[in-house]
Amino acid sequence: MKWQGGRKSGNIEDKRGMSGRRKLTLGGIGGIVVLIIGFLIGGDPQQLLNQIQQAAPIQQSEYQSTEEESRLMDFADIVLGSTEDVWKNIFAANGWDYPVTTLTVYNGAVETAGCGVGHSAFGPFYCPGDQKIYLDLSFNDELSSKYGAKGEFALAYVIAHEVGHHIQNVLGVLQQTNAMRAKMSEREYNKISVMTELQADFYAGVWAHHVKHYSSIELTYDDIVDGMRAAAAVGDDHLQERAHRDVNPESFTHGTSEQRVQWFKKGYDTGDINAGNTFESTNLE
């Protein structure tokens, strides 16, 4: 993956150096989406909540970035810039305006403007309340060491996936699915959550398709394979197997490894934003 020298977004907030935790606010669409989308890495909900249900102030201190972290910051900035270039062009072709999102980089815990306090245990997440993506750079190490998703494109896929949730928020999908939550059982809503996540995977694939047309980033076939491996690594069935738990399809919230790869590949193959209706069999009205 060739990304050095690419256009930086500049829409990045550096909130590293914060410490302490506050109680997570679960009210409204923001909190719900954090708990659903934030489980990208397959964390146990109760365990994650237990880690953050402690009243302690978040404090800011000066943060000394390592050389590797500085490199990852540049990488994330350029990848985000490429998503802006791609989605601005796609939206324009459909007669729409694309409002950019902001990527907030933090470590440990971070206070959001619309979703309470997020924690690195969530993995990367998108908060529709403030339309920002939140990323702890240490997740890059987890991708490789814990999930076996190696290669630079694995992290690029993760960022593009979260941008996919931003696309859903802009188009009103998240608002619709959130409204359905109160009308469904947990098992029923899990199916909606899976469709939501698979569509974000599809949008990540659409971005990868158009990178060569609208961005200075250059991808190879091996990069796309890395992206599919990353998608497979965070499939619900794969994560449950790794945790030595029985595979329970009714508890899936993100989709199987096969589904995630399938939808990412479909986005990459078609490059068509209108070909990713993962909700085809579900009435969102």
Task: Summarize the topology.
Blueprint: E1 12-14, E2 18-19, H1 28-37, H2 45-52, E3 59-60, H3 67-93, E4 102-106, E5 109-111, E6 117-119, E7 125-127, E8 132-136, H4 139-145, H5 152-170, H6 173-181, H7 186-214, H8 221-233, H9 236-242, H10 257-270
| Computed structural class | alpha/beta
Count of domains: 1
Strand order of the largest sheet: 1-4-8-7
The number of helical segments is: 10
Q: Helices and strands, in N-to-C order?
A: EEHHEHEEEEEHHHHHHH
Mean pLDDT: 82
| Main sheet specs | 4 strands, mixed
Low-confidence stretches: 19-56
First-residue to last-residue Cα separation = 41 Å
- Rg computed from alpha carbons, rounded to a whole number of angstroms: 18 Å
Features:
285 residues; alpha/beta; 4-stranded mixed β-sheet; two-stranded antiparallel sheet; 10 helices; 8 strands; 50% helix; 9% strand
What does this structure look like?
With 285 residues, the chain is α/β, with parallel strands linked by helices. It has helices at 28-37, 45-52, 67-93, 139-145, 152-170, 173-181, 186-214, 221-233, 236-242, 257-270; strands spanning 12-14, 18-19, 59-60, 102-106, 109-111, 117-119, 125-127, 132-136. It has one domain. It has 10 helices and 8 strands. The strands form 3 sheets. It has a 4-stranded mixed β-sheet with strand order 1-4-8-7. The protein has a two-stranded antiparallel ribbon with strand order 2-3. A hairpin with a 5-residue loop joins strand 5 (109-111) and strand 6. 45% of the residues are buried. The model is unreliable at 19-56 (pLDDT under 50).
